[in-house]
Amino acid sequence: MDLEALEQLAATQRAVRAFTDQPVPDDLIARILRVATRAPNARNVQPWHFIVIRDRETKRAIADIQSDMTNQPRGQSSPDRQNWADVPVLIAVCSTLPFGEGRAGDAATAGSIYPAVQNLLLAAHAAGLGTVLTTRWRLNEEKVAPLLNLPAGMAVHAVIPMGWPAVKLGKNRRKPVAEVTSREKFGNAW
Amino acid sequence: MDLEALEQLAATQRAVRAFTDQPVPDDLIARILRVATRAPNARNVQPWHFIVIRDRETKRAIADIQSDMTNQPRGQSSPDRQNWADVPVLIAVCSTLPFGEGRAGDAATAGSIYPAVQNLLLAAHAAGLGTVLTTRWRLNEEKVAPLLNLPAGMAVHAVIPMGWPAVKLGKNRRKPVAEVTSREKFGNAW
């Protein structure tokens, strides 16, 4: 895979929040998760664990937590933002905490989980699937962990709705590189 | 870019710690950073800032901090692990802290930075460049920030040595998907 092809893939990765009813087969999910596990991680500890959720009641319960987190009314659905109960699959990205609790452990764990999350999102996009990354779940673990039977000592980092996009989106919009890059020291123009 | 091509790219992404003397051109770095900026991030805040470091003394000073962090003797160099002073480029991935300090802010910021880091690493690999992701820098900001003239209120998440690989490495080794995936609830076999 050459750089130009990856540039095109990354430029068209968008947050997709509405999906068709077309099912997402297990074997495709397994291929996508395999790409996720190829990500770099500290000392190859591979702290990740993925929970693939299709059960409607679990999806609804997680959606309600997300609605509360984002101060949205529960159960809402619109053409461009589907209620998660109606989304084909939710993938919860969890992990052990091999680097301990606290700020140091959090930083090390995040650095070993989010590269896998991005591999997952890119792989889904390469397959034509839509996803949207939702984070901040570690702040609501006491609510979401019981829904997933998650053991103590494991964290929930991200929940990713996944399905075939109901809408076609163009390239994402980002600041120019020169605006977010410095040479040698911060503030030296690139 | 199709899924099969991304699978191949991700499977061969390895930590490269020794590089040739061949220079890494600015325009290629800019293309790679553009891919980094395509990553998902909360509310499209794009908190990232990249510092491209070629200055030998800065690279050496950062290498010394890394050696102290990892309890290695300073200034070491071996065929498979080059001293950073001799690495063509170091890229420091920094950010503003738009989501505040503390654990909540840290989690949100990490979720908006590490996907860009992984895009950067994949783009470098697609271009034939080698990299190695080093994290935990937020725990040493008081040492590294002055070297980069980093303003207060900005964080250093990762430092990424980059160059043309001195050695050819095969596929990375990862646990099978079935070992790190559950269906519906944690522990239900995939």
CATH fold topology of chain A: NADH Oxidase
The CATH class of chain A, by name, is Alpha Beta
Distance between the termini of chain A: 28 Å
- Which two chains share the most extensive interface? A-B, 80 and 81 residues
CATH architecture of chain A: 3-Layer(aba) Sandwich
Written as H for each helix and E for each strand, in order along the chain, the element string of chain A is HHEHEHEHEE
Low-confidence stretches of chain A: none
Question: Which assembly state applies to the chains in this document?
Answer: homodimer
- Count of DSSP helices of chain A? 5
CATH superfamily of chain A: NADH Oxidase
**Structural category of chain A:** alpha+beta
Overall shape of chain A: it is globular
Percent of residues in β-strands of chain A: 15-25%
Strand order of the largest sheet of chain A: 1-2-4-3
Please give the number of β-strands of chain A. Answer: 5
Question: What does the main sheet of chain A amount to?
Answer: 4 strands, antiparallel
Helix content of chain A: 25-40%
